[in-house]
C-alpha cells in the first residue's frame, strides 16, 4: 500500500509533543512491514531544515484570499526510514515555530498545497492518514472539493492525538476552502463554527485514537464533540501507540552516561543516577522521583508543587523535574529548590539528552495527568526500568497495572494532591522492599511497547478500507 501520513509535527524534523514522536515512528515501522509509507509536513525554518539538503519535486500556486506559491521538497540524504516531503510556503510557513496565532491560514494553506500535489501524482495514494485538527479538513476537501475529485475514492483515516484542540474558526473564512457544493457545508460545521476536527470525524472513512481507553473517554469528555463521537462510533477504534524501541533502548542509547540491559540494570541505572544527582546536587542514596513534560493543567502540573512539598518534608526522597509551561507553576517549582535544597532540583525548559538520562536515572516517574490520550513517557520509563506513577486515565490506564493488583506500576484514582502524595508514599515503601523492587525492574524492562503490533493494527485497518 502507498500510505501518506499528513501532520504538523514529525520527529526529528519538528516536535512539540507526542504527535511528533508518533508520526516520526509509525511510518518507519509500517515500511519494515512491507508497506510504502511516507510523511508530508510543513517546512519550518529550524535546525533540521537548516542542516539538511532538499530537492524540489513539485511547484504550484493556490489561492487563500490571494495567490501563494509553494514547493514540495524531499530530503536528499534520507536515513529516516521513510520518505519525507515538506510543503514549503515561504509566505505562510517559513518560520522556526510549529504553532502560532495565525494557524488557521497557515495550516489551511498547508492542506490545500498538499492536496494540489497529491491530486496530480501519477501513482495516487492508497491511504491518506491525517493526524489531529491541523490536517482535519483534508477528508472533507478530498470528498467534496471539485479540484480533488480524483481523490474522492481514496480512503482517509484521521487519528485524534488530543481531542481538546479542534482548530475552530469562523464561517467568515469558508470561502478560503477550495470550491465545493455549498449544500455540503454542514460537514464543516459544529456548533456554529467551522470545526476541522469535527469535519474530519464526519468525513474520514475511519477515526482512530491513540489508545482504546481514550476513545471511550472522548465519547463523554471531548470538549464538545461527545455527541458526534457517539453518533460515529461505528467507524471509531482505539489503537494504542507504540514507542520507537531503537531510539529508546538503554542498551544502545548514546545519550546515557552508561548503557545497560536487564542483566546490568542495577549498575547501569546507578551510574546514571549518580551522575544526575551530582549535576543537580541531590542525594543518590534516596529513591529518585522524576517528572518530564509540559507544565500545563492537562498534565496535572499545577498539583506538582504541593505534591512534591508534602513528600519532601520527610527528607526520604529526591526529586528532579524537567519541563516548562505555565509560568506560575514554573515559579512554584523553582521555589522548591530553596525550600528543599539537596532534595529537589529542576531544569526549566527541555533538553532531549537530559530527558533520556532522567529516564535512566530515576526510580519513579510521576504522571498525575488529568488528560492523557496515550502517553509515551510511561512507556519510555518502563523501557528504562523506571516505575511509572500515574493517574488512571486514557492510555495510562491501558499501559500501567498497579503492583498490588499483580501489576508493575502505581496507579491512583484522580488528579488530586492527596492521591498524588499517597501514591508517592506507596512508592517509597515499594522502593525499600528491595527484592520485590529489583524483580519488578527486571520485569518492566521486558515489556514490549514497540510499534510492531500497533503498526500492523493500522495496516489491518487500511486493508479493511480498500479490499
UniProtKB/TrEMBL annotation:
It is an enzyme of class 2 (transferase). Gene3D superfamilies: Glycogen Phosphorylase B. One of its GO terms (biological process) is glycogen biosynthetic process. Keywords: Glycogen biosynthesis, Glycosyltransferase, Transferase. Residues 279-408 form the Glycosyl transferase family domain. One of its GO terms (molecular function) is alpha-1,4-glucan glucosyltransferase (ADP-glucose donor) activity. ADP-alpha-D-glucose binds at residue 15. Its EC number is 2.4.1.21. Residues 2-230 form the Starch synthase catalytic domain. The keyword Cytoplasm does not apply. The keyword Transferase applies. Pfam families: Glyco_transf_5, Glycos_transf_1. Pathway: Glycan biosynthesis; glycogen biosynthesis. CDD domains: GT5_Glycogen_synthase_DULL1-like (cd03791). It catalyses: [(1->4)-alpha-D-glucosyl](n) + ADP-alpha-D-glucose = [(1->4)-alpha-D-glucosyl](n+1) + ADP + H(+). Synthesizes alpha-1,4-glucan chains using ADP-glucose. Belongs to the glycosyltransferase 1 family. Bacterial/plant glycogen synthase subfamily. This is Glycogen synthase. It comes from Gelidibacter gilvus. The gene is glgA.
Amino acid at each position: 500500500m502507498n500510505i501518506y501520513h499528513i501532520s504538523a509535527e514529525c520527529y526529528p524534523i519538528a516536535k512539540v509533543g507526542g504527535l511528533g514522536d508518533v508520526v516520526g515512528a509509525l511510518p518507519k515501522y509500517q515500511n519494515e512491514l512491507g508497506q510504502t509509507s511516507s510523511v508530508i509536513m510543513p517546512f519550518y525554518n529550524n535546525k533540521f531544515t537548516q542542516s539538511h539538503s532538499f530537492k524540489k519535486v513539485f511547484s504550484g500556486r493556490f489561492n487563500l484570499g490571494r495567490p501563494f506559491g509553494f514547493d514540495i521538497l524531499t530530503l536528499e540524504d534520507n536515513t529516516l526510514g521513510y520518505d519525507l516531503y515538506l510543503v514549503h510556503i515561504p509566505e505562510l510557513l517559513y518560520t522556526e515555530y510549529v504553532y502560532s496565532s495565525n494557524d488557521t491560514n497557515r495550516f489551511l494553506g498547508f492542506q490545500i498545497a498538499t492536496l494540489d500535489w497529491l491530486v496530480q501524482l501519477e501513482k495516487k495514494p492508497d491511504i491518506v492518514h491525517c493526524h489531529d485538527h491541523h490536517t482535519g479538513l483534508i477528508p472533507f476537501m478530498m470528498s467534496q472539493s471539485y479540484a480533488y475529485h480524483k481523490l474522492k475514492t481514496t480512503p482517509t483515516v484521521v487519528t485524534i492525538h488530543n481531542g481538546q484542540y479542534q482548530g475552530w474558526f469562523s464561517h467568515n473564512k469558508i470561502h478560503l476552502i477550495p470550491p465545493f457544493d455549498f449544500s455540503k457545508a454542514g460537514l464543516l460545521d459544529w456548533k456554529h463554527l467551522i470545526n476541522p476536527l469535527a469535519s474530519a470525524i464526519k468525513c474520514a472513512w475511519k477515526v482512530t485514537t491513540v489508545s482504546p481507553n481514550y476513545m471511550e473517554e472522548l465519547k463523554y469528555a471531548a470538549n464538545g464533540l461527545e455527541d458526534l463521537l457517539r453518533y460515529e462510533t461505528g467507524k471509531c477504534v482505539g489503537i494504542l501507540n507504540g514507542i520507537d524501541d531503537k531510539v529508546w533502548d538503554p542498551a544502545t542509547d548514546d545519550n546515557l552516561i552508561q548503557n545497560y540491559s536487564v542483566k546490568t540494570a542495577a549498575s547501569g541505572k546507578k551510574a546514571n543516577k549518580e551522575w544526575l544527582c551530582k549535576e543537580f546536587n541531590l542525594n543518590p542514596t534516596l529513591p529518585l522521583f522524576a517528572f518530564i513534560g509540559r507544565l500545563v493543567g492537562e498534565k496535572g502540573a499545577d498539583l506538582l508543587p504541593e505534591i512534591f512539598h508534602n513528600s519532601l518534608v520527610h527528607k526520604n526522597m529526591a526529586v528532579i523535574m524537567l519541563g516548562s509551561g505555565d509560568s506560575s507553576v514554573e515559579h512554584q517549582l523553582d521555589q522548591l529548590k530553596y525550600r528543599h535544597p539537596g532534595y529537589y532540583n529542576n531544569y526549566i525548559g527541555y533538553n532531549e539528552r537530559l530527558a533520556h538520562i532522567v529516564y535512566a536515572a530515576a526510580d519513579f516517574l510521576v504522571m498525575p495527568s488529568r488528560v492523557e490520550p496515550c502517553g509515551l513517557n510511561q512507556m519510555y520509563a518502563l523501557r528504562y526500568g523506571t516505575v511509572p506513577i500515574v493517574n488512571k486515565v486514557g492510555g495510562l490506564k491501558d499501559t500501567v497495572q498497579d503492583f498490588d493488583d499483580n501489576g508493575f506500576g502505581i496507579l491512583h484514582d484522580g488528579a488530586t494532591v492527596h492521591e498524588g502524595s499517597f501514591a508517592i508514599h506507596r512508592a517509597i515503601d515499594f522502593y525499600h522492599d528491595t527484592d520485590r523492587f529489583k524483580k519488578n525492574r527486571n520485569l518492566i524492562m521486558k515489556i514490549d511497547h514497540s510499534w510492531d503490533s500497533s503498526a500492523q493494527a493500522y495496516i489491518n485497518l487500511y486493508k479493511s478500507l480498500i479490499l
